[in-house]
Design goal:
The chain is built from five helices and 22 strands. It is an alpha+beta fold. The protein folds into four domains: 34-45 and 299-369, Beta Barrel (conserved putative lor/sdh protein from methanococcus maripaludis s2 fold), CATH 2.40.420; 48-56 and 214-297, Efflux pump adaptor protein, beta barrel domain (Elongation Factor Tu (Ef-tu), domain 3, Beta Barrel); 63-87 and 178-212, OB fold (Dihydrolipoamide Acetyltransferase, E2P); 96-163, Helix Hairpins (Orthogonal Bundle), CATH 1.10.287. The strands form five sheets. A six-stranded antiparallel barrel has the order 2-11-15-13-12-16. It has a four-stranded antiparallel beta sheet with strand order 3-10-8-5, with no helix packed on it. A four-stranded antiparallel beta sheet has the order 7-6-4-9, with no helix packed on it. β12 (236-241) and β13 form a beta hairpin. α2 runs antiparallel to α3. It is rod-shaped and about 180 Å long.
Amino acid sequence: MSKRAKIILGIIAILFIAALIWFGKKNKKSIVEYETEKPFKSTIVKKTVATGKVIPLEEVEIKPQISGIIDKVFLEEGAIVKAGDLIATVRVVPNIQSLNSAKGRVKNSTLSFNNAKNTYNRTKGLFDKGVVSRQDFETAELSYNNAKVNLENAQSDLEIIQKGSTAGNGSTANTNIRATASGMVVEIPVKKGYQVIQSNNFNAGTTIATIADMTKMIFEGKVDESEVGKLINGTVIEVSLGAIENKKFPAKLNFIAPKGTEEGGAVQFKIKADVTLDSNYFIRAGYSANADIVLEKKDSVLSIKEALLRFDRKTEEPYVEIKVGDKFEKREVKLGTSDGVNVELLSGITKDDEIKIWNKASKDDKKDNN
């Protein structure tokens, strides 16, 4: 073999060896070492949030006892009243048919009264002379008294239709709308000139004002059907108001609706809770509110972070990977209560096991990869 051929073969051999070394380095995979952490003791509290509002426990709607037009309103919303205080007056607008009927009754009663009066006077004169018997006189006197009462009633009815009351009623006149309970006037939906309808068996009537006891407030909200079964009357909850920041008011659950209503494809159940007020804050009726309700609480239980969990694609059972020597082994676990961050560990691993932290390699491995 010539010298030139030997040189060429030597160069090819060197290139071949260099290529092998380069491909070996390129295909070499660095071993990634994952960080681990152990289970820990934790108190897990599972909560739900009910949205709603804060309203007075007791509200009374004041309605008129006669139809008409609001003549004057004496109070404003926010006023403190006692039972019997005058709120507004109503000016009566008589119904033509009822007015004509009442006038006709007065005329008929007047005629009957005059006739009975004449008969009574004539019979009395004859009785004094001994011409008629006492029985005839007493019959004439009874007819006269009945006719007098009927005339007075007819005149009173006419006066009520015309004015809404009679002179003998005084301060109890139907045209005077008075408070029937003590508290704060939270709403006056009418103004001077508004037409109102009386409350009766066939009509609820027009609300003149709403009075509430603002010292007794309740939270009224709704919870989902998946959580209502875990609620218990008497449970202490915390109510946060949208209008008052960084303040929570304690409340006690006192009502859970036995029947739900469907809203947006989900069944919701109404709940109520007595709110303990703070004298430093004035709570207005209708404030939007959220209630934090503890559904379940586990004190000092063995827990792991939910981020460590994986779920089998076939069985959908949860599992973690445990470090055994230089490798990781799959371990199925049974879980308990979760708060969305940590979850109670019932079985599957012990407190000394080291659990793989997914997508978190050691710092040395990260440097090598870079």
